[in-house]
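Protocol step 4 of 5: obtain the predicted structure for the target chain.
Materials: sequence only (see below). No template structures provided, no constraints applied. The aim of this step is simply to have a reference model before the mutagenesis design in step 5. Sequence pasted as it appears in the construct record:
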Amino acid sequence: MDFQAGAILLVDKPQDWTSFDVVNKIRHRLKRITGIKRIKVGHAGTLDPLATGLLIICTGKFTKKLTDFQGHDKEYTGTFRLGGTTPSYDSETEVDNEFPYKHITKDSLETARQQFLGTIDQVPPMFSAIKVDGQPLYKRARKGETIEIKARTVHIHEFELTNIELPDVSFRLQCSKGTYVRSLAHDMGQALNSGAYLTELRRTQVGDFRIEDAWDLEELIAQLEERIVGMDVV
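Step 4 output (structure tokens):
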């Protein structure tokens, strides 16, 4: 495979890895394989560190395709927990407020779910990589700063509640680019007169690319290492 001319690698991102961590590890191996010190490697669509799932990696000239891949619709599965909120809208940060959730029923969950189908306006969380004045919002959030964030228009194609065991609710989601699943969980909590935050998230599809076709990261690295040995590269 000519990594400089361009290749697409599908990776199942492990939990607690940043998307950049994955890119950096693959880039390091490819430098050894190709002998090219500045080989281009990039990813299409950032996954939060706590999330797992499909990460599209492009190398060489194929990095020009990243913007196109980022524009594809995406599918996720995950779980949100009712009865509390966190500053990051997920379990990366501690619960800062608690709310009642015993009043929530399957019917009220269904009513709330339907509010988030189709085209909706969504405010991204402060703990996000969106840049304001050249600085990612999460860096400001970690300093205790808060700024007004403009709502973004996104489209929710499908939003299915797959398992309800209060306070936890599991779901499957198909959505447009730019959708923040953490914000969706947070907004569901508000719609239910409670609070909610994301506890699990897995990206299962980007466009026509599916998680079933992705490499486990360590298996991919092992394959690259075998290629290194075969080429007698040190």
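Step 4 remarks: Confidence is low (pLDDT under 50) at residues 229-234. The chain has six helices and 14 strands.
Proceed to step 5.
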